[in-house]
Task: inverse folding
């Protein structure tokens, strides 16, 4: 990678501050908590808390409950131009005091937003205002991270932003504020280095927009919303299949993050309207397990905000019990040659990724096909010549039979099994 990954990132458990986010169907506090704006905003996309003391109390409570980092929400390119408040029990129109003075200077051009919030540019003084707000989140509110939604620039023709150009026909054409966005991220990173706990602090919701010039200052890459149109147009049987929508090469390129030094996280997109169209995505485990067949193979974390969270929560615990955050954990992905010849044989639809630590293996056996498939593993070489004495299905804790040195398993369609193997 171009920079080191955050230490211990594989043991991160990402959750949302509840009850602000209704989607999460569990009450666990992760060690990385996104502090959603529903909880503290006055109106959508206004970055000043309505009650700074309550903001700080929430952040302190989350830290006391086990959160190593708390990430309040900021949209990099949206600002409210006035809206009806969403404060429970109250109803009034709120006009951010900054908007009448600075709003026109902040907006990208042309500004296609017809809602109460407008597209703004980090190439304008919006960047200074947003950074001033974030400094207050840190110094006055105790924030230790930031969630950056829509973390990419939009097309802009505003000459006062240094954007756009006039073509030979006299028509104004847009450009993108790549370097201004980079400077914005650099200044954000500085704020957390100077006033908070340093890295990892910047969680950038990139979807498929992996623009390294500015993301080089981020620590976490959040993807997943790029499947919105694929899911909307889905015509297959039942709920949309991640395995069908994301071929392995695509998933590897878009979601890994590690090649850029970014801890990779994915957001399942089983939220409205898709959870309404396919209610089984919330009530059954199969949809989340299919997604995790891909994430576990690729060493990608899941933010279980939509869909049934239980498979993701189980996988998090299994990894933690294995000691996945240890510095000496070795990672052997399916796309590289198997140095230990762990996979003795397998059906074509089977892929195997595994970790090695303290004489133990944590093995992900995923079946990406449409029918059950089998694999045969021989762990002796991976255990430094020691025969496997213990093989367990890590989700059920059921022991697996060992035939000589071989372990034979069957994996259901579009699913996975997690094995613990030791000498």
Result:
């Amino acid at each position: 990678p171009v920079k080191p990954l955050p230490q211990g990132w594989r043991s991160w458990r990402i959750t949302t501050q509840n009850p602000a986010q209704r989607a999460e169907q569990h009450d666990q506090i992760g060690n990385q908590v996104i502090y959603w704006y529903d909880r503290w905003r006055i109106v959508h996309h206004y970055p000043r808390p309505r009650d700074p003391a309550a903001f700080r109390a929430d952040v302190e409570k989350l830290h006391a409950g086990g959160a190593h980092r708390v990430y309040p929400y900021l949209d990099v390119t949206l600002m409210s131009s006035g809206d009806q408040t969403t404060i429970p029990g109250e109803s009034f129109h709120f006009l951010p005091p900054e908007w009448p003075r600075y709003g026109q200077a902040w907006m990208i051009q042309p500004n296609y937003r017809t809602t109460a919030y407008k597209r703004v540019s980090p190439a304008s003084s919006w960047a200074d205002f947003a950074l001033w707000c974030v400094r207050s989140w840190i110094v006055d509110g105790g924030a230790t991270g930031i969630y950056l939604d829509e973390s990419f620039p939009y097309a802009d023709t505003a000459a006062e932003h240094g954007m756009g150009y006039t073509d030979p026909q006299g028509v104004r054409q847009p450009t993108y504020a790549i370097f201004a966005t980079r400077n914005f991220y650099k200044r954000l990173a500085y704020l957390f280095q100077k006033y908070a706990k340093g890295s990892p602090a910047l969680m950038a919701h990139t979807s498929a927009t992996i623009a390294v010039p500015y993301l080089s200052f981020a620590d976490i890459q959040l993807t997943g919303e790029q499947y919105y149109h694929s899911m909307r147009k889905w015509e297959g049987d039942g709920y949309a299949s991640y395995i069908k929508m994301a071929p392995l090469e695509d998933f590897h390129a878009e979601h890994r993050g590690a090649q850029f030094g970014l801890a990779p996280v994915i957001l399942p997109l089983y939220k409205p309207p898709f959870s309404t169209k396919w209610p089984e995505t919330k009530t059954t485990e199969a949809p989340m397990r299919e997604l995790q067949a891909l994430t576990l193979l690729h060493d990608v974390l899941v933010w279980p905000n939509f869909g049934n969270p239980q498979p993701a929560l189980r996988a998090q615990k299994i990894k933690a019990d294995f000691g996945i955050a240890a510095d000496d954990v070795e990672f052997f992905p399916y796309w590289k040659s198997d140095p230990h010849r762990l996979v003795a044989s397998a059906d074509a639809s089977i892929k195997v990724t595994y970790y090695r630590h303290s004489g133990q293996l944590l093995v992900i056996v995923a079946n990406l096909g449409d029918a059950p498939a089998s694999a045969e593993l021989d762990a002796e070489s991976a255990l430094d010549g020691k025969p496997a004495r213990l093989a367990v299905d890590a989700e059920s804790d059921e022991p697996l039979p060992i035939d000589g040195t071989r372990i034979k398993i069957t994996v259901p369609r579009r699913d996975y099994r997690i094995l613990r193997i030791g000498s």
Notes: The first strand starts at residue 14 and ends at 16. The mean pLDDT is 94.
